[in-house]
């Protein structure tokens, strides 16, 4: 057995993980895909991929998404035929030691409702359910051009300070966390970050990750302009851009408790693909 602790993945390692993922998905009828990029982790030096091989075969993997300095989201797969042998525990302990180096004490485990083996592990760890998110996929046939006063433009470097203030207003994160997220997103070759402009004012933001498919995240409107339909207009503009790029699969995730955003996405042509449950472990 050998274990790789990595900051990023090469094509061969990604292929190994996707193969393991497909096997586990078929076994438990899962639908979500692992996020295999580190571009928007708050620190790119964090080892966020842990791969356990038996000779050339990937047996178990663990991935960490660490967008802020407060907590890490962990997902993992182990071959069904190799479960119950402590492989996940081994990788988790390696990941925890890495998180300690960055003073990150909280973990959010991500699992799908069909993941019965994962539920047993979470119970053993005494991880506590915290919230759920829906993974939603867009139906392209739903798209219609809409009249709007908004324009959507990629965020230039000179607007970073303005966008940090806007994101803090929208999402309520700390200045440092929002700064890290914006800079990492703008500098990533796989992410396009947009600002929504009304007249001469920047009133909204949205991002799309183009790794393997188009995944929308960080969509929001300034509090002063919420409730006026601008969120829907901004989303429609972004969908138009993605459709014109020839992208087939467009997804996003929304907190199951955020009824306002959920209703917006349903009305805009998104439907639920699966649900992710998050469990906190300190």
From TrEMBL:
Alphabetical list of InterPro entries matching this protein: Acyl_CoA_acyltransferase, GNAT_dom, YpeA/RimI_acetyltransf
Alphabetically ordered keywords of this record: Acyltransferase, Transferase
Residue span, N-acetyltransferase domain: 4-141, 150-282
Record PROSITE patterns: GNAT
SUPFAM superfamilies in alphabetical order: Acyl-CoA N-acyltransferases (Nat)
Entry annotated with the keyword Acyltransferase: yes
MF (Gene Ontology): acyltransferase activity, transferring groups other than amino-acyl groups
PANTHER family with a match to the protein in the record: ACETYLTRANSFERASE, N-ACETYLTRANSFERASE DOMAIN-CONTAINING PROTEIN
Name of this chain's protein: GNAT family N-acetyltransferase
